[in-house]
Amino acid sequence: ENGDDDVTLKILYCGVCHSDLHTLRNDWGFSFYPVVPGHEISGVVTKVGKNVTKFNIGDRVGVGVLVGSCKTCECCEQDLENYCPRIIFTYNSYNPDGTKNYGGYSDMIVVDQRYVLRFPDNLPLDAGAPLLCAGITVYSPMKYYGMTEAGKHLGVAGLGGLGHVAVKIGKAFGLKVTVISSSPQKESEAINRLGADSFLVSNDPEKMKSAIGTMDYIIDTVSAVHPLLPLLSLLKVNGKLVTVGLPNKPLELPVFPLVMGRKLIGGSDVGGMKETQEMLDFCAKHNITADIELIRIEEINTAMERLAKSDVRYRFVIDVANSLSQ
Ligand code: NAP
Ligand code: ZN
User: Which residues fall in a coiled-coil region (predicted)?
Assistant: First the structure.
């Protein structure tokens, strides 16, 4: 039911995030089955409650990783709903009344207006959908940790859904961007299609050595356990590494290079609603969208198998409306 503060969306597209795959596989140990994943949701408004002031029927909108929070804590008051201790996620989570949330691999969703985003006119609903998780997850730490100074050198570790958007956002901030990847075959696309300035293969010791101490910032989007030492070595003194990837086991922390180079390691989890809207507007202004492979829902299992093998260019998006009409 659409409550007084709620908006109902007809879902048109939904991106496929690696977090969906982690959840399906119970990688993190807190999957509550049955799960309907999907938190990069775009569509149009079909219904609004009587208190809804932000949206009208027919508006192009999106829903990302969260659909609720307490609205009164310090985090919520500072537009950091994403760090609210009572955050309600879009799927694999429960509402205060005990009902369960199901995500965007679906044809409709009902969401409190506070957690609904407006799509700028020139932002397409298909290639724009992944910005709702992948986009904000890399934009928010770049802003918070001060990684946006034009001319500085950003490394992007892992060229998948998050990584390829990080390259584009980094370029829009005027940074020099180097991709650090385990997939040598992504090099020419990274440079010619995504706009990266250079490309390092993480398991090529010679190339990695040549880049030691050259980066100001690194954003680490790798989804699996991996060594941090090679990445920390790429940083200059005072460099910052922000990890947003969520491997299923802890990473080892190499303390010596951290201490000796006054380096910083931080983390970041999506972004608040205000900042997510700011990111969508920023991407629309700079013509940033995801590079997508549009699939029908029948193809989701193959897509998940490919995602597990880092074989996606660079985000699968489900064409929900067309899947259901077939
Ligand atoms: P993705 O599209 O699968 O990209 C991850 C990339 O990591 C792969 O394309 C691959 O890039 C690299 N990689 C994968 N396995 C690797 C391995 N064993 N060794 C080295 N590199 C490897 O995933 P995504 O959707 O971008 O998500 C990335 C991670 O971020 C996931 O863990 C996800 O759960 C997490 N996440 C976090 C947040 C947050 O708020 N913090 C939000 C969304 C997602 P190369 O082929 O270039 O090596
Ligand atoms: Zn996600």
Answer: none
| pLDDT tens, residue by residue, 126-168 | 999 999 999 999 999 999 999 999 999 999 999 999 999 999 9
In whole angstroms, give the CA distance from residue 225 to residue 230. Answer: 13
Q: How confident is the model at residue 323 (pLDDT cuts 50, 70, 90)?
A: confident
Tell me the pairing of strands 215-220 and 153-157. Answer: parallel
Q: Where are the alpha helices (DSSP H) in 61-153?
A: 74-77, 125-128, 134-144
Could you say which ligand is closest to the alpha carbon of residue 156? 1
Q: How far apart are CA 80 and CA 254, in angstroms?
A: 30
Output the CA 108–ligand 2 centroid distance in Å.
19
- Residue written as tokens 């940074």? 175
C-alpha 125, offset from chain centre: 16
Closest to 12 measured CA to CA, from 55, 54, 50, 63? 63
For ligand 1, say whether the CB of 182 is within 6 Å of any of its atoms: yes
Q: Which two tokens stand for residue 2?
A: 């659409």
Q: Name the token pair of 235.
A: 């940083």
CB of residue 133 inside a 6 A radius of ligand 1: yes
Sketch out the chain's domains with CATH numbers.
Answer: 6-133+291-319 (3.90.180.10), 135-267 (3.40.50.720)
pLDDT of residue 326 exceeding 70, the answer is: no
* Cα–Cα dist 65/88, whole Å: 9
Q: Which of these, 192, 147, 144, 169, lies nearest to 313 by C-alpha position?
A: 192
The CA–CA distances, whole Å, from 145 to 16, 187, 253 equal 27, 27, 20
* pLDDT tens by residue, 118-134: 999 999 999 999 999 99
